[in-house]
Each structure stands twice: as C-alpha cells, then as structure tokens.
Amino acid sequence: MNKKISIIFQLGSMITLIAIVVFFSISMLCYILILIHVLNFNYLRNSSNRHEFRLCVQAAGLLIAFLLLFIYSTGQFIINRASDLPLLFTWRLFNPLVTGFLSWVQPWMCLALNTEVRQNVLRILFCRRKNLFVSR
C-alpha cells in the first residue's frame, strides 16, 4: 500500500513539473517574441508603446521571480526525496529570504519602471506639499 502511494505521489509530482515547465516556456517564448518585435521595428518611438514595453518588463521580472521560486522548490523537493536531513534543514533556512523576495518583486518593479508611482512615493517620503494626484 505504501509503495502504491509513493508511485502516485511521484506521478503527481512529474505531472506538476511538466505543466509548470510547459507554461513557463510558453510565457518566456511570448516575451522573447515581443522583445524581438520591439527591437526590430522601432516600436518605442510612441510614448504609449514605451509604457506597454515597461509593463512587459514588469511581467518578465515576475516570471524571473517565478523561475527562482521554482528552482528553490524543486531543489527542496529533491533534497527531501534524497532524505538528506542536514542539507534539507540548511536549505530551509533560506525560506524566509525567498518568501520575502517574492513578496517585494512587484512593488520594486513598479517603483523602478513606473515614473508616476515613483514620483508620488518620493513626494510622500519627503513630505512635499505638492498635489500628489494631478488630473490629466
């Protein structure tokens, strides 16, 4: 009975691994095609196109963060299956760092790539008296 559960667990893990790799690969392929299109056709001359490109860079940053989490989780799974407890406990020491990194990826990407958000945050931090929200 225990062997049957182990086989089902391994099969489920393989299906999950395959699904994640396939969807991640499709997403990265789409972003590469967008980047090639942008670089080949001088797409960034229009300001609205530059904003769209910055959003694509933000999404690419999230995909890279997802890749790092995937590598970390896969490493933890492999170490757990190998029953190497000292290495597993050492590996799990990085769990708060990985979790903290993932919870801050989107805000840092917004601050780095969105001029309006960055200006408003700086105004709040430095207590400037100018209007924070300017209507267009």
UniProtKB/TrEMBL annotation:
Keywords (A to Z) from UniProt: Membrane, Transmembrane, Transmembrane helix
Cited InterPro entries: 7TM_GPCR_serpentine_rcpt_Srv
Membrane-spanning ranges: 12-41, 53-73, 93-113
Superkingdom field: Eukaryota
Tagged with keyword Transmembrane: yes
SUPFAM superfamilies per UniProt: Family A G protein-coupled receptor-like
Protein name listed in UniProt: Serpentine receptor class gamma
Annotated organism of origin: Trichostrongylus colubriformis (Black scour worm)
